[in-house]
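Proteins fold reproducibly. Take a sample protein:
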Amino acid sequence: AASASELDLGSPGSTSVPANASDASDSTVVPLIHVCGDSHAISPAWNTVEVCGSPRLLKPELVTGLKHFHLRDETDFYPKKNFYRVVQNIPDGADVIFIFGEIDCREGILLAVEKGRYANVEEGMLYTINIFIRAALELQKQRGFRMFIHPVIPVLNETRNIVKAYNKIFKARVNEVEGLEWIDGVFTRLLTPDGSKLKSEYELDGTHLHPSYVSLLGEGLTEIWRG
């Protein structure tokens, strides 16, 4: 995955940019949707999506290496500190998509079950998801963000079944609380009809999605906005 140092991810704190970013005198302004995530936030970065027929620019807010599990109260691990540093620079009341959880599915939960920390995988998933939901709701309360929750990305063959199970629980929990909005219609459309593989048009480097998937993201956001 590309690192933050390899990318110009833009200056913090802006809510819109000129439609022609190279021409600051351009009076046409494209509203931003901030995409706060691990390296999966790079795929949609700086793409424009149509939401209810209007363009929205996806501005990356990169927090590499963050797990849902890192946001628990008792930890001071660096990715958690970096998450709050990045979020601090997002304007109050902004529209924010959160893309996290893939690393939890790739490492951590299964090992914790093997060590007896949870009775089963589902218990571990629910516990981990609830950590993120508590943190997200506190942010929403403090900052007034409109918060959209992106399904966990199903790129890796080795963890796809875990990701499916995680997303099922994740979606159910998000839909149970007020203040978070699940982006529907994205996850299943990334996969082949039998759900076993990532569709070839969304393949990129074996780890991340091809940026072309943002059209699905725009459709999912439109569905939410139209309510």
Observations:
- The first strand starts at residue 16 and ends at 18.
- The longest helix spans residues 121-143.
